[in-house]
Specification:
With 257 residues, the protein is of the alpha/beta class. It has 8 helices and 9 strands.
């Protein structure tokens, strides 16, 4: 659930990137982080385990406009794709306002995508999240490779409700900001209505919010982002309990902002 701070006049909208291991979830967040001016993003916090060569968790608050008199920022988080981190995936999903499901487009990984999406359904049920109602965007990643799962097949198997979908090559930034814009179009009006009882007058209102606020944040030129790559904050953890404790601590810390 989005967090509202009346003292600082801020609203935090929590977006979770979900999907199988190595599908490109962390790549999305790293690209967004490196392409944003430092004035529009917080620290990228990474938790890494001895058994997981990718990042377990990324937190990226992005200040993204206003809802009434409240400043809005997104908290972007990833979940670990590996099966043995099931408990951690459940924790990250708790209180989410929107989900981007990052699927790996390679044909041999179709079963991994289906298994991950089934896990998403189960975990949403445990948190009383209605997967048919929560803002949901599908990103079909790695479209630059050979032997790809057709988009039609993805939509038939994963996306019967016909949520927005984006073809992506996250390593090159293709479809990354587009996915973020799509989830903002869906999540911002829902948060506005839930917190303030305000329904958007027109569907275009949410679209204008996304295009204006998110396009303006993207930084031109790769060299500036690459120069900041060393600014990542990395925390080494040893066990699942350490991950759970660190996740709860980070969530509370950023919720107070």
């Amino acid at each position: 659930m989005s967090f509202i701070n009346y003292a600082t006049k801020t609203i935090a909208i929590k977006i979770v990137y979900y999907g199988p291991g190595l599908s490109g979830k962390t790549t999305n967040l790293r690209y967004i982080y490196l392409k944003l001016d430092s004035a529009y993003r917080g620290d990228l916090v990474c938790l890494e385990t001895d058994t997981d060569r990718t990042y377990f968790f990324d937190l990226l608050p992005i200040r993204a406009g206003m809802i009434g008199e409240f400043k809005v920022h997104f908290q972007l988080m990833t979940v670990p794709g590996q099966v043995f981190y099931e408990a951690s995936r459940k924790s990250v999903l708790r209180g989410s306002d929107g989900i981007i499901f990052v699927a790996d487009s390679q044909i041999p990984l179709l079963d991994a995508n289906l298994e991950s999406f089934d896990g998403l359904r189960r975990n949403c049920l445990q948190h009383d999240i209605d997967l048919m109602k929560i803002p949901l965007v599908f990103q079909y990643n790695k479209r630059d490779l050979s032997y790809l799962i057709p988009v039609e097949t993805f939509n038939n198997l994963l996306n019967p409700r016909r949520s927005p979908w984006v073809e992506a090559v996250a390593t090159k930034g293709v479809g990354v900001f587009e996915s973020l814009r799509e989830i903002s179009k869906l999540s911002v009006p829902v948060v506005r209505e839930r917190l303030f009882g305000e329904k958007p007058h027109e569907e275009a209102d949410a679209s204008q919010f996304s295009a204006r606020d998110l396009e303006g944040l993207q930084e031109k030129g790769p060299e500036a982002g690459e120069a900041r790559a060393g600014q990542l904050t990395q925390v080494k953890v040893k066990s699942r309990q350490d991950i759970e404790d660190e996740l709860d601590k980070l969530s509370k810390e950023y919720s107070r902002e």
